[in-house]
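Supplementary Methods S3. Input chains for the assembly prediction are listed below.
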Amino acid sequence: MSEITREQVEHVANLARLNLSEEEKEQYTSQLNGILNFFEKLNHLDTANVEPTSHVLDVYNVMREDVNRPSIDREEALRNAPEQEDGHFKVPPVME
Amino acid sequence: MSIFDKKIAELHSDLDGKQISVSELVDASFQRIKQTDDKLKAFLVLDEEGAKQKAKQLDGQLSKEGEERGLLFGLPAAVKDNIVTQNVTTTAGSQLLANYNPIYNATVMERLGAAEAIMVGKTNMDEFGMGSSTENSGFQRTLNPWNNEYVPGGSSGGSAAAVAARQAFFALGTDTGGSIRQPASFCGVVGLKPTYGLVSRFGLISYASSLDTIGPITKNVEDAAYLLSVLAAHDPFDSTSAEVDIPDYISSLTGDVKGLKVGVPKELLGEGIDQEVKEKVEQALKVLEGLGAIIEEVSLPHTEYAVPTYYILAPSEASSNLARYDGVRFGVRSDKENNLIDMYKETRSQGFGAEVKRRIMLGTYALSSGYYDAYYKKAQQVRTLIKQDFDKLFEKYDVLIGPTAPTTAYKLGEKTSDPLTMYLNDICTVPVNLAGIPAISVPCGLASNGLPVGLQIMGKHFDESTILRVAHTFEQHTDHHKERPQL
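Predicted structure tokens for the full assembly:
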């Protein structure tokens, strides 16, 4: 595992939809390197034949009957929206 | 005896004998909060009006003879703020959700309501559960009731402090990597993390979905058994909710540990564990041995890998879960918006605190193209090894016992500058979440600094009855749970 650069921190921040200040970029580059370096410890273990665990219980698809059930009414669903218009969530322009 | 020190069963007999009313209990709780919370800051939101109204209604029922009463009838409860409560602001400790007013109740709130408990308010926490000291709250710092210069632990620090300070009769917490047990340990109260899947997560604001659990924080073990009896149930709204028979937790408290096989993992009493904490745990083991338990040293060989494994898996899951905070459907939207992408970025950058951003960055990196196998998959494989360590020991032992935390509470600000130092402190609790097993923290004495030490009892999947029985037996033969902070 290699060192994370400032450019990579900027790239990851963009993927995560975060704007970082110059100071944050600096700080996260150094802190993430410290943490990633600590993760190196896991490479001491040979896991070539080990199944990954994503979930401790036996995971299976949980199905239910496809029947009508009450759903949230529109007014309730929009109650927490920062902006709304004509019964819809309103967002800033998607394209310039 | 002060009503605040009484057990649920004792309070119910007082209510039955008309020595006290539900309204008086609720008033006492709010009075106590008003006296103490300016300083402690355990609560983010109070629902005094709702609680008093509910109390009046329950007092009306109390006067009718022969009516069936809920298991938590009339008792004031505190609820961690990442559990959604209909029409009561729910922030999960994040500025991004400062104005979020849920339109529905979490399943655990429906169950508390059906058991006729009364919620007095929502408690402070590390933002989205990310932290071990409650210092990562976007709103305020909660102080440890035992000594105001110290942290209450986290992330359920508000709930643990509220119970320790007797502001509420019990509380709900959540535990992803130790967030019920460690603050319970730091605040000298009982905290139970149930088996993953035993208690519904529906309406719990997700941090790391494969690890998140909800459980009780109480003054004594018997109350924890009451709470768990109410909380444990299959829920069709949570697809990871287990379909298992729920035993009678209250009648499992037999006070008998004769012949019980106890494993003591040497890794949890080794390097990095404070000497006094070690001594308290060893004294507790002597008590159990004196009562007929068989104590043997055992090994969990992959313990040293648990913290790095956890800090890859939990932030990875968090980076995905927290993608929903985009300022569109709920939350505080940034007003510096030119286009949609900028709005997302500004909303998230202004709303999230430093630790949440750090974990999102870490998780996004670990899941990003080219790094997935090296970090995420690797950690999932090591998780298997950690789980197998426990499986092997539980073939032979009924419970495993060790400390809940390597030290007593630390000072405010002591571990905030270096995130890794804070992470390493989770060593005793994260293995339990990775394996998905239940564990309980019970007070096992005060260290020379006057701060509480917690004993952690870990059990087999869905065997909460046994860890409750062991914890209860220990409690009944010691006086540690009678210690309480002077406020």
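The mean pLDDT of chain A is 92. Chain A has three helices and two strands.
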